[in-house]
Write a structure and sequence with these properties.
- Helices cover about 5% and strands about 40% of the residues.
- The two termini are about 20 Å apart.
- The protein is mainly beta.
- A hairpin with a 5-residue loop joins β10 and β11.
- It is globular, with a radius of gyration of 15 Å.
- Strands 1-11-10-7-3-4 form a six-stranded antiparallel sheet. A five-stranded antiparallel sheet has the order 5-6-2-8-9, with no helix packed on it.
- It is built from one helix and eleven strands, in the order βββββββββββα.
């Protein structure tokens, strides 16, 4: 295991943002997770999990979802049980996208936006999207299975300029 990766069996991704001002349409952000097969780790996703879906095998679940950012602290959360994923999976990529229904919005347009990736009580990533402030979507974490079958976490904050539908198709592309 390299110094920039950490072994992980189960992770939770949490997302927060402040609601939009009362006279503006709500900001709607979503956690999106894509799974990739061992045969094509940078190919098309086997399946994608987001606010309106869940994994077929129950290993990836959204436990909290917000369409407005209202609430205290992290208002959206997704659990990824890597150690329960079938051996046919080799890569999982997690990202965040901003819905563009009410006009273009970037991370810089949303106040107090932040993501937290944890494994148990260990913080793997805490980020405010400042480095991708001009983007409408971003990957935040990549998990890869090593030759022994263990899953490794890799920080992967990378910005994209696409709506959620396009982001789901391109989020696992080679950087």
């Amino acid at each position: 295991m390299s110094s920039d990766s950490q072994s992980v069996g189960k992770a939770e991704v949490r997302l927060k943002w402040d609601p939009s001002p009362w006279d503006q349409p709500p900001h709607h952000l979503d956690i999106i997770t894509a799974t990739y097969s061992a045969d094509a780790p940078y190919g098309r996703p086997v399946y994608i999990v987001h606010y309106d879906s869940r994994s077929p095998d129950g290993t990836i679940n959204m436990s909290r979802h917000s369409q407005t950012g209202q609430g205290f602290g992290y208002v959206e959360a997704m659990t990824v049980e890597l150690d329960r994923l079938a051996s046919s999976f080799a890569r999982v990529v997690v990202g965040v996208a901003i819905h563009q229904d009410t006009g273009p919005k970037t991370f810089g347009d949303v106040s107090n936006v932040g993501v937290l990736v944890v494994a148990g009580y260990k913080e793997l990533l805490k980020d405010d999207f400042a480095q991708v402030a001009g983007s409408t979507a971003a990957t935040v974490a990549e998990f890869t299975r090593d030759s022994s079958g263990a899953w490794e976490y890799h920080e992967s904050v990378r910005g994209f300029d696409s709506d959620p539908a396009l982001f789901m198709a391109e989020m696992g592309d080679t950087p």
